[in-house]
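We emphasize that the prediction below concerns an isolated chain of 251 residues; any contacts that depend on oligomerization or on bound cofactors are therefore not represented. The input was used exactly as deposited, without trimming of termini.
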Amino acid sequence: MTVTSSRVAWLPWIAGMAFFMQTLDATIINTAIPALARSLHHSPLAMQLTIISYTLTVAMLIPVSGWLADRFGTRRVFALAVFLFTLGSLTCAMSTTLTQLVFSRVLQGVGGAMMVPVARLALLRCYPRRELVRVLNLATMPGLIGPVVGPLLGGIFVTYASWHWIFLINIPVGIIGLILTWRYMPNVTSTRRRFDWLGFLLFGLCLVCILGGIELLGEAAVNSLLPVIALLGGAVLLGGICGMRHVILSP
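Result of the prediction step, given as a token string:
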């Protein structure tokens, strides 16, 4: 489905905003880890949970975003994603314990997992093929800025304000994104397909094992056998997923 209305001219900017928010949030927290540790009375190593929880949530839920957009429409799912990401940013800033912060980061991850894939799906559905390279490049450029300015902004906020601002900065951007989304993004749907729960669970467990194993490799306090077991388990699950796909696609 190709939408030719002039309203879709806003789509690359909306997608770029989502990409920028996601990449900024993934890097801005790094420079605030010592301040977070002091404020929440934990060691800096314990603060790695805030990064791991977000990364795992995004990785696990990205495969669901396409099905949700096909089922409920790109505008509804993208607006929900931006809302959850913004709400998660607010609850992160209000957190007073490490547990609250980790759960808030998970909420952020749920929104972050759907923002960029659904925005790109909307671009693919609304623009003719000859324009895709141009609009995808336009949507990607703001995301490339996020990792560059993230550590700088994080250092400025921690030094001259407080760590809360590394999350509060997302709120005005999210509100603007919600307004633009509801006004300019078309609610494109596609053929409804049955959701593959088994594949989703296997894929999620595979990612948790592989990413968790990689993270545990750098932890001196963890038994060295544990990350090896996690990585092997992830490899076995990945092999099972590939085997299932081969059986399904084979004539």
